[in-house]
Design brief:
CATH architecture of the largest domain: 3-Layer(aba) Sandwich
Structural class: alpha/beta
CATH class of the largest domain: Alpha Beta
Number of helices: 10
Number of strands: 11
Number of domains: 2
Largest sheet: 6 strands, mixed
Shape: globular
Radius of gyration: 18 Å
Helix content: 25-40%
CATH topology of the largest domain: D-Maltodextrin-Binding Protein, domain 2
């Protein structure tokens, strides 16, 4: 229920009331929902009086909304290919993109689970949760990693697909499935209730990009937020939440 509430709730930060559509509106991948509050708070402190609103959902669903003209200023995605597609279509502004964080995909299970490694999934007979690959980048990463291990087709009959990565986490926390594939940062928010079994090997790193939406009503403030995402302050917030810097900015 907590993840569903995040999906349906628009978070508003800043001084005063949001009147006449004055808020900077950010569509944000559900995988970033935990750290978005801290990033928003820090940005508002640097830009007092700037209302900031987040709309959380799976990246694929948010991209679909943008293609239909949703009134959004910024898009924070969990998928580089998805952002590439929006850039080709002119939905986001070419050249505005900032790759601001990286992550990993981990196999988690309830404490007490007999699972010992990712490789042990070859003998796994339980239910495995992952994001729906059709709309959830974490699900696509999980699918591709399992295919590389030649495990996807074997496990497919026992898979449970979540509408976003936080729902997958909740399935594992509540014991509704026997294991799940989520971002490491999602695991950290529930580390007292589940454990990491192993890290899924991926062909490419999980990179989170952000970009200015072409139809943005508040382009100046949106560019300020993109600049903030490149700052040392934002990077420190992301690192504390378990993310790593993108390859080109890593020390």
């Amino acid at each position: 229920m907590r993840a569903l509430a995040l999906l349906l709730t628009i978070l508003t930060l800043g001084c005063g009331r949001d009147q006449n559509g004055s808020a900077l509106t950010v569509s944000c991948a559900m995988g970033l929902s935990v750290v978005a509050q801290d990033l928003g708070d820090a940005f508002v402190q640097k830009h007092p009086g700037t209302p900031l609103r987040f709309n959380f959902a799976a990246s694929g669903k948010l991209a679909a909304q943008l293609r239909l003209g949703a009134p959004v200023d910024l898009f924070l995605s969990a998928s580089l290919p998805l952002m590439d597609d929006l850039e080709r279509r002119g939905v986001v502004v070419r050249g505005s993109r900032v790759d601001f964080a990286t992550n990993t995909v981990v196999l988690i299970a309830p404490r007490g689970s007999p699972l010992t490694s990712v490789g042990a999934l070859s003998r796994f007979s339980g239910r495995l949760a992952l994001g729906n690959p059709a709309s959830v980048p974490a699900g696509r990463y999980a699918r591709d990693g399992l295919r590389a291990l030649k495990l996807y087709d074997r496990l497919r009959p026992r898979m449970v697909f979540g509408e976003h990565v936080r729902q997958v986490l909740d399935y594992v926390v509540r014991g509704e499935v026997d294991a799940g594939l989520v971002y490491r940062t999602d695991y950290l928010s529930a580390a007292s209730r589940v454990r990491i079994v192993g890290t899924l090997a991926l062909a490419a790193p999980v990179i989170f990009p952000a970009a200015l939406v072409a139809s943005a009503r508040h382009a100046t403030r949106a560019r300020q937020f993109l600049t903030f995402l490149r700052s040392k302050e934002a990077r420190a917030i992301l690192v504390r939440a378990g993310y790593s810097p993108p390859p080109e900015t890593a020390p």
